[in-house]
């Protein structure tokens, strides 16, 4: 698995939750982002997650060959959505590569809403 690091002393297995928390904290620092949205939309309502629950706005899928991250975000009104999304992807990939020593193979951004701050 891609989240398993082996060395001469043993193995390090990094959980999906740890990766999701790192990705959520990296994303929330991006300009134009109001917050992370819950992955589970019920009745069409988008829940804005607090700082303690940022990982719930991130879905991590790990297979033998690939790590995919889906980020559910809410952007600020008046910003260019594609630029905010690209900045989120770049920031998350950079932080994960520098923190964990590996990054996702694919990072998807799902915009759940646009809000005023």
State the main characteristics.
2 helices; 6 strands; 117 residues; two-stranded antiparallel sheet; Alpha-Beta Plaits; alpha+beta; 4-stranded mixed beta sheet
Report on the architecture of this protein.
It is a single chain. The chain is α+β, with helices and mostly antiparallel strands. It has a single domain (16-115), classed as 2-Layer Sandwich (Alpha-Beta Plaits), CATH 3.30.70. Helix content is 28%, strand content 32%. Helix 1 (16-28) packs across helix 2. The N and C termini lie far apart (40 Å).
Q: Which helices and strands, and how do they pair?
A:
Elements (H helix, E strand, L loop, with lengths): L3 E4 L2 E4 L2 H13 L4 E4 L21 E5 L4 E10 L4 H20 L5 E10 L2
Parallel strand pairs: 5-6
Antiparallel strand pairs: 1-2, 3-5, 4-5
Helix pairs in contact: 1-2
Number of domains: 1
Number of strands: 6
Largest sheet: 4 strands, mixed
Low-confidence blocks of residues: none
Helix content: 25-40%
The average pLDDT value, as a whole number, equals 86
Provide the CATH architecture.
2-Layer Sandwich
The CATH homology group name: Cation efflux protein, cytoplasmic domain
Radius of gyration: 15 Å
CATH fold title: Alpha-Beta Plaits
- Coarse structural class: alpha+beta
Short summary:
Helix content is 28%, strand content 32%. With 117 residues, the chain is of the alpha+beta class. The mean pLDDT is 86.
């Amino acid at each position: 698995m891609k989240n398993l690091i082996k060395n001469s002393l043993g193995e390090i297995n990094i959980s999906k939750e740890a990766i999701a928390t790192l990705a959520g904290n990296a994303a929330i620092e991006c300009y134009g982002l109001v917050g992370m949205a819950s992955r589970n939309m019920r009745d069409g309502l988008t829940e804005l997650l607090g700082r303690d629950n940022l990982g719930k706005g991130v879905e991590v899928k790990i297979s033998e060959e690939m790590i995919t991250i889906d980020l559910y975000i809410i952007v600020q009104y008046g910003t260019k959505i594609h630029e905010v999304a690209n900045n989120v992807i770049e920031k998350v990939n950079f932080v994960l590569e520098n923190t964990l020593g590996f990054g996702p193979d694919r990072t998807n951004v799902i915009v759940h809403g646009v809000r005023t701050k």
